[in-house]
Amino acid sequence: MEKIFELPLFGILITLATYFAGLRIYEKYRQFFLNPILLSSIFIIGFLVLFNVDYEQYNVGGQYLTFLLGPSVVALGVLFYEKYPMIKDQMFSFVLAVFGGGLMCLISVVVLCLLLSVPEELTRSLAFQSITSPIAIEVSAMAGGMPSLTAGVVIVVGILGNALGVQVLNLFRIKKESAMGTALGTTSHGIGTARALEVSNLAGAFSGVAMCLNGVFTAFVGPWVLDLLL
Amino acid sequence: MLKAFLVILAFLFTGELIHETLNLTVPGNIIGMLLIFAALKSKLLKLETVKPVSDKLLQFLPLFFIPYAVGLMQSKSLLQEHGLVILLVLLVTTLVTILTTGFIQQTLNRKDGKDI
């Protein structure tokens, strides 16, 4: 029985099955906390613990899926190109907003972590919370963080932005679709973009491009800001 | 379909190659992303050539990072010790970031007289 968990098939199968089950549950109830990634991860962890399977055994198959993150980042470049015409005439305010937000995220994480005396390795993992997972995981590893923790916090930040973003923006009278989209994409990447698309197509386009741009911006600036402040 | 995937992999590989040879702090996948954007913009590459696969990759993107999220089970003691603090940091900084971004864009747009 031990052997069966070491087949690549096991990791791939359980991930696919739980993801699609999670997707069905999310589509049925439409509650933000029923995020398919969250449901799937919790179920898999539960299964592995219950049947005493090591993470390494699961990851024999899991790594085949992880591999596709690289090509997915390249695919973001294609999305960037496709949506670019929609945001062209607000380029200046858009770029400044994304850079400002991206920088504010880095600084606020570091300052808050220092105030709460969070260990440095944790701070370096949390700093990349707002950028899309495939980029965040890679940059976190390069900047001395823990990729698996970064993967987790990225999802949590996505869910927080998705759940609270629109209400908070409205509370502070930020109600223009373009600004709302940019804010959601810059802060909460793909999961925020899903929420922006519910606001409108225009908000969705701004959000998608903001996600790409903040990914690039933070990948360039993030490690440098961390070394400066920590 | 396969050709589109090949093109995307080729851009990724070129990005990784540049990352390795120039010893950059920017990941190879980002360089690949910028390269494919530049290739599309300069019409060296047609959108139709890559779109079938790039759309599929983005559609299933969440699936690809589940194995990383599952990897959190290896940091159980870390989460028991710091879990609440982490959650607090995430909540505060998420709200700060979202408001900063939205505020900058809306204010600048209003100055320019753009009302969308």
How does this model look, in words?
The complex is a heterodimer of chains A (230) and B (116). Chain A is an all-alpha fold and 230 residues long. Chain A has two domains: 2-67, no CATH class; 71-229, no CATH class. Chain A is 82% helix and 0% strand. Chain A is built from ten helices and no strands. Chain A has helices at 8-29, 36-50, 55-67, 69-87, 91-115, 120-126, 133-142, 147-171, 177-199, 201-229. In chain A, helix 5 packs across helix 9, helix 5 crosses helix 10 and helix 9 crosses helix 10. Chain A is globular and about 60 Å long. The mean pLDDT of chain A is 92. With 116 residues, chain B is mostly helical. Chain B has two domains: 1-63, no CATH class; 84-116. Helices cover 81% and strands 0% of the residues of chain B. Chain B has six helices and no strands. The longest helix of chain B has 37 residues, at 76-112. Chain B starts with a helix and ends with a helix.
Question: Which properties best describe this structure?
Answer:
heterodimer; A: about 230 residues; mainly alpha; 2 domains; globular; B: about 120 residues; extended
